[in-house]
Every structure is written in C-alpha cells, then in structure tokens.
Amino acid sequence: MTQDTCYLWEVALSRDASFDGHFVYAVRSTGIYCQPSCPSRRPRQSQVVFFSGPEEARSAGYRACQRCRPDHPGGDAELVSRARRYIDGHIECHGALPTLAQITEASEVGVHVLRRVFKQETGLTPMQYARGRRLGRFKTTLRDRANVADALYDAGYGSSSRAYETAGEQLGMTPSSYRKGGSGAVIRYVVTGSALGEMLVAGTASGICAVKMGDDAEALIGELRDEFPAADIRRVESNDHDRGFEELRNWTSVILGSLDGGRLDIDLPVDVRATVFQWRVWRKLQAIPSGETRTYQQLAEDLGQPTASRAVGQACAANPVALVIPCHRAVRKDGNSGGYRWGRQRKEALIEVERRE
Ligand SMILES: [Zn+2]
User: Which one-letter DSSP state was computed for residue 321?
Assistant: First the structure.
C-alpha cells in the first residue's frame, strides 16, 4: 500500500463520517463498496481498493452497500424525506394509499433498508406513516365539512364503510362523533389529590384521553367538559364497580405511583387525537429515559427536522395526557425549563423528582 492508501484505510477503520463523500472503499471478495463511516465489519486490508467516488467504483464493477448506501450521500434524513415526499404526493394526487413496493421503488433503496431507516428516523413504518397521513387529511377535511361522505371521499378511503371501521379504530370515536366534540363517546374521570396538587384522569373504553393537574378540581373538570362538549362525561367515585371504572382506577394508580417515585416509565393505552407530527414528537418524548431531559432543538434534530424546534414545542404543549406522554422532559436550549401546560413549577418539580430517582 502507498502512503495515501494507508491513510485512507486508517480513516475507514476509524469509521469517521466526516470523510463520507470524499472517497469510497470497495471489497474485492464481496464486490461491494462502502462509505468510510459504514458500520459493517472491516475486511482484511489486502481485500480493499479505494475509489474517489461511487461512479468510479461502479464502473469498476462494484455494487453499492445496502447498509451505508454510498450512492445516496444525503444519508438517512434525505432518504426518509424522499420517501415522505412520495407518500404525501401520492395521497394528495391519487387520494389513496401507495403500496410498500411503490414507496420502495420511489426511494431507490431495498425494502429492508427503507423500513429500518424510516422507523429509526420517524418511529413509524412507511405504511404506518402513510395511514397516518391519510387519517390526518381525513380529520382536517372532516372539521371543514358538514358532509362526512365527502370527507371520506376526499381523504381517499375506498369505501365509506371501510373508512368508518379504520378511522373509528384509530380515533376511538366514529368520525361524526369526533366532529361533534365526542358525541356518543362515554368518558369517565376521577379527580384525586397528588403530590403535585389536584389531578384529573379521564378515559374512554380504549384508553386515557386526559391527564390534567392544577390547584382547583372544578376548573379541571370544566376543561374536560370544554374539550368534549358532546360526550357523555361521568364522574366515578371509589364505590363504583362498573368495568370502565376498574380500568380507570388501575390507570390512575399507575400514574400516582409514578409521581410517588415508584415506576417512572408509564406505559398505558391512550385515546387521544393527534396529527402524525404530534405523534412522532410524543413517541420521541416517551423514549427519553426518566431522569433525563432533551431540548426542543435536540428532539427536532432527532426527528430529522432540525428547523422544526418551534413546532416540536407546540406539539409538546398540545399534549393532553400529562406524565403518560412525558412532555416535562422537553426543555429549552438555554437551560430554562420552558412552558408547561400544567404550570412551570410542576414541570420543574417533576424533572427534579426524576433526577433524584
Ligand atoms: Zn457499507
């Protein structure tokens, strides 16, 4: 090896990503070429040839590695945004879901790479993302229209009966009950004292739809009624024994237990409405270990949208279920804890409690 190739090999061994795009290395025995940062195992040095770029490697008969994808220098974020642009455009134009094969083809990578990278960047599979987009479009149209059938048609659902099934499942309410402020849904709630003041926990048959904290129980109940003006809202007391209450009581004790320093990672079913973006942010929040915080900026970068820190902040502020989705773990870059729907002091107290655990 010459001095130059020795140096390139050192770089490849160190997996230094800052050299990506400057050269590629190819492996004679496998016929594959990689970026310097490729995570795959390194071959014996005698097997390696270097090229100035993908084109040169290809014309020498080598194929691109599916893991580091040296032919797509934009990296994972670029791949995901290409796939998302295709999905969004497809739903917009055809009013129907694309197939996984179509998304894969448009993304110019293998299906396994697409699924892995997409999931890692967004927390969703490509098809989950596509279904979420379609549902989001459906909900937007629904709010703007009197006629549910038109909304279904606009959102690209094949037949309205199937749409009712799918959308009903995901909303925990039928489309028209959603539009009418929860009409037809039964929402049970309990109000209880907690380490951080009054706490209200509310849920439907499918999951928790609200966790609120405050100084005044009546105000919390009023908020719940404002959010679901048409729902059948029932306060349950500790001597009630219907099935819906059993579940609600279990959920409440898990949440209270977490506040008292027991289990801090809450994994409970939720029944909330959200956009795809909000869900992506909330999943990232749930992935922050208890006792740690992230800045809005870090979360935005994690989502592959570094300029979206404001939108991330708004998604945190829109969280309807305190603690279950731990938006208190998202803070401002300047060290300030940032806003909290249930009071900044409560947020700071929560961060403090979790740090001590
Ligand atoms: Zn590779």
Answer: B
Residues around ion ligand 1, judged by CB within 5 A, are 34, 38, 40, 65, 67-68
Taking the CA atoms of 158, 160, 165 and 167 in sequence, report the sign of the dihedral they define: positive
Q: What is the pLDDT of residue 165?
A: 40
| Fold adopted by 3-64 | DNA Methylphosphotriester Repair Domain (3.40.10)
Listing DSSP states for 95-132 in one string gives SSPPPHHHHHHHHTS-HHHHHHHHHHHHSS-HHHHHHH
Q: Residue 224's pLDDT is what? A: 92
Contact 141, 154 (CB under 8 A): yes
CA 35 to centroid of ligand 1, rounded, Å = 6
What CATH class does 74-179 carry?
A: mainly alpha
- Positions annotated as catalytic residues are 34, 327
**Domain residue limits, the chain:** 3-64, 74-179, 186-252, 276-356
Q: Can you tell me the mean pLDDT for 114-124? A: 81
Q: How far apart are CA 152 and CA 137, in angstroms?
A: 10
Structure tokens that stand for 255 in this block: 């949440």
Collapsed DSSP state (helix, strand, coil) of residue 107: helix
CA nearest neighbour of 201 among 115, 287, 324:
324
Q: What is the number of helices (H) and of strands (E) in the chain?
A: 15, 10
Residue 67 Cα to ligand 1 middle (Å): 5
**Predicted confidence (pLDDT) per residue in 226-241, tens digit:** 888 888 898 887 666 6
Query: Are 309 and 299 spatial neighbours (Cβ–Cβ below 8 Å)?
Result: yes
What b/e string do you get for 56-79 counting C-beta neighbours within 10 Å, with b at 16 or more? Answer: ebbeeebebbeebbbbbeebbeeb
- Cα of 124 from ligand 1 centre, angstroms: 24
Mean pLDDT rounded to a whole number for the chain = 80
**Residue 65 in this model has a pLDDT that exceeds 70:** yes
**Rounded Cα gap, residues 58 and 315, in angstroms:** 44
Measured CA angle at 320 (ends 266, 353), to 5 deg: 45
The CATH code belonging to domain 276-356 is 1.10.10.10
